[in-house]
TrEMBL record:
Residues 2-216 form the Alanine racemase N-terminal domain. InterPro entries: Ala_racemase_N (IPR001608), PLP-binding_barrel (IPR029066), PyrdxlP_homeostasis (IPR011078). Belongs to the pyridoxal phosphate-binding protein YggS/PROSC family. Signal peptide: none annotated. It holds the Pfam family Ala_racemase_N. Pyridoxal 5'-phosphate (PLP)-binding protein, which is involved in PLP homeostasis. Transmembrane segments: none annotated. The modification N6-(pyridoxal phosphate)lysine is found at residue 25. Keywords: Pyridoxal phosphate. It comes from Winogradskyella litoriviva. This is Pyridoxal phosphate homeostasis protein. The keyword Membrane does not apply.
Length: 220
């Protein structure tokens, strides 16, 4: 199927409250333009340089989401235009985003990445650390960032019960934190293989790559 057909297929089944981030990492601008011409305006990338290059080449009414792990020393390169940073996993990183956002007179929306997977390889903070951060004075002093929700990545496994439990954990963590932080709105969870399950568990934002653009080839 074409990129346009894939997009239409996915969108036809999405509830209204769920936002689709088209994950375009490794894909050429021509593929992204196909999605753009089919109406897609939100793209997710996991490498800052690649996102910058695509941002420069493409129309300017696109929202660019950084969905990958962010190195602090690279925040300055995307601070001018990034719409949402999904993978914030430390106060230090948040402070740097705040500093760079301030340089550009912006407020940058961020999600706290919660570690929901058992695997050691997945980044993220504990629910407790997120709660502590959101209650801290240091956090309340950061005026150029806004935490608008949480992000999580489930374990890479065929065991859908486990994935479901991990999504539910993110959903519960969100509900608890929202009691003290009413501005939390976004639950970013679900990818090509598990987004339907994620939506059933409360996701409001799915990050879908291969089901739109086809399998990725990391060698070119
Ligand atoms: C690559 C990636 C996705 C998309 O994965 P697909 O399985 O291709 O849909 C989603 N989220 C993150 C953080 C990613 O790095």
């Amino acid at each position: 199927m074409s990129i346009k057909a894939n997009l239409e297929h996915i969108k036809s089944k999405l509830p209204k409250h769920v936002t689709l981030v088209a994950v375009s990492k490794t894909k050429p601008v021509s593929d992204l333009m196909e999605a753009y011409n089919a109406g897609q305006r939100i793209f997710g990338e996991n490498k800052i340089q690649e996102m910058i290059d695509k941002h420069e080449e493409m129309p300017k009414d696109i929202e660019w989401h950084m969905i990958g792990h962010v190195q602090r020393n690279k925040v300055k390169y995307m601070a001018k235009f990034v719409s949402l940073i999904h993978g914030v996993d430390s106060f230090k990183l948040l402070k740097e985003i705040n500093k760079q956002a301030k340089n550009h007179n912006r407020v940058i929306d961020c999600l706290l990445q919660i570690k929901i997977a058992e695997e050691d390889s997945k980044f993220g903070m504990s629910a407790n650390d997120a709660s502590t951060l959101l209650k801290s004075n240091e956090f309340s002093e950061l005026k150029n960032i806004k935490i608008v929700g949480l992000m999580g990545m489930a374990t890479f496994t065929d065991n859908s019960k486990q994935i479901e439990n991990e999504f539910k954990f993110l959903n519960n963590t969100f509900s608890e934190l929202k009691n003290t932080n009413a501005e939390l709105k976004v639950k970013s969870m679900g990818m090509s293989g598990d987004y339907q399950l994620a939506i059933a568990c409360g996701s409001t934002m799915i990050r879908v790559g291969s089901s739109i653009f086809g399998v990725r080839n990391y060698n070119n």
